[in-house]
Design brief:
The protein is an alpha+beta fold. The chain has helices at 2-21, 24-34, 54-62, 123-127, 153-157, 182-185, 192-196, 207-220, 261-292, 307-317; strands at 40-45, 91-95, 110-114, 133-135, 141-143, 164-165, 175-176, 202-206, 240-243. Bound molecules: iron/sulfur cluster (3 copies).
Length: 318
């Protein structure tokens, strides 16, 4: 009953705010954002990670990825920053406190697990002209080999530089990235990395629940966490969310805006289509005028300019 009343008040409040206070665009943006609250998601609490690399190993085994030359037991690999690639959907990196000084030397390093962020509005899928990369109804972004033509637009579009290409497979190269263990999740299992983690760094749930959980953690331990949930707003939101004790740009995360790149692309595309009629109409009108005035019937001589003349003119224009 309480929940119903609260939901009702929330919905009514949102409607009033949307219709009276907020501009239409903002109300639409809010509606769009909340539509991802039910997406499957993971919250990574980097303050708990000890860099054991068991998540890397579990992912490798579940997805039959090539065995690495150096064993997963070897922690020395953490001394170099790595990225997910065509042989590893996830990697753990180690970041030392940047302010080495008398007050900070005792601080432990920060370990961060990276993989595809499973964006709420994925640029990779938006850029994929065949639909080989697409967002599933539950949120995970997956790749279908039969639809892929190998254009690799997804690699250019991803703001996190995640999709990797099997360049060494000349016959059947694949686009490789974390699948969110989608096939397993559909069967009611957890992502392999979340299941194996001995420190319970990774919590699985819906995006809405996990955002609430993350806010609760920050409120409960304000000295432990910075007041920022990475992925809540970045590029329109992501399904992998992060908590940290350090500013995110100091532990390997790109500083990104709130606007989802696909939305930007859509706006540009819509802008082009919307305003293209004006120059086209102008060309039609001018073409008509030239036709009527006999422009096309006249023989005209044009002076051919040499490339250096063009260059000189352009240099003079500057
Ligand atoms: S398994 Fe857990 S504790 Fe170990 S590296 Fe991965 S996220 Fe960190
Ligand atoms: S992180 Fe990159 S590859 Fe993953 S969903 Fe977002 S845009 Fe796509
Ligand atoms: S969700 Fe699955 S595919 Fe993605 S990093 Fe974890 S184990 Fe690997």
């Amino acid at each position: 009953m309480n929940l119903n009343r609260r939901s009702f008040l929330k919905a009514t409040g949102a409607l009033i705010a949307g219709s009276i206070i907020a501009p239409k665009g903002r109300a639409l943006a809010e509606k769009r954002k909340s539509s991802h609250d039910n997406d499957w998601a993971c919250l990574v609490d980097t303050t708990l990670c000890v860099g054991c690399r068991k998540c890397e190993q579990a992912c490798n085994e579940r997805h039959n990825l090539p065995k690495p030359k150096i064993s997963f037991e070897e922690k020395a690999v953490l001394e170099e920053l790595r990225r997910p690639d065509e042989k590893s959907y996830t990697v753990v990196n180690k970041y030392y406190p940047l302010n080495i000084g008398s007050l900070t030397w005792r601080e432990r390093p920060v370990f961060v697990k990276f993989q595809c962020m499973h964006c709420s509005e994925p640029s990779c899928a938006s850029a994929c002209i065949t639909g080989a990369l697409h967002k599933n109804p539950e949120g995970p972004i997956t790749w279908t080999s039969s639809k892929c033509i190998g254009c690799r637009y997804c690699m250019i579009a991803c703001p996190f530089q995640i999709p990797a290409y099997e360049y060494n497979e000349p016959l059947t190269p694949r686009v490789m990235k974390c699948t969110f263990c989608y096939e397993y999740l559909k069967k009611g299992q957890l992502p392999a990395c979340a299941q194996v983690c001995p420190m319970e760094v990774i919590t699985f749930g819906t995006r809405g629940e996990l955002l609430e959980f993350a806010r609760w953690k920050i409120k409960k331990r304000p000295g432990k966490y910075i007041n920022h949930i990475y992925g809540e707003h970045e590029v329109g939101g992501t399904s992998w969310l992060y908590l940290s004790s350090q500013p995110f740009e100091k532990v390997g995360f790109p500083k990104l805006g709130k606007e989802a790149p696909p939305r930007l692309t859509e706006s540009i595309q819509h802008g082009i289509y919307k305003y293209l009629w004006a120059p086209l109409s102008l060309y039609v009108v001018l073409g008509g005028v030239m036709w009527v005035s006999g422009f096309f019937g006249e023989k005209r001589s044009f002076k051919v300019r040499k490339p250096d003349q063009i260059q000189n003119k352009e240099a003079g224009d500057e």
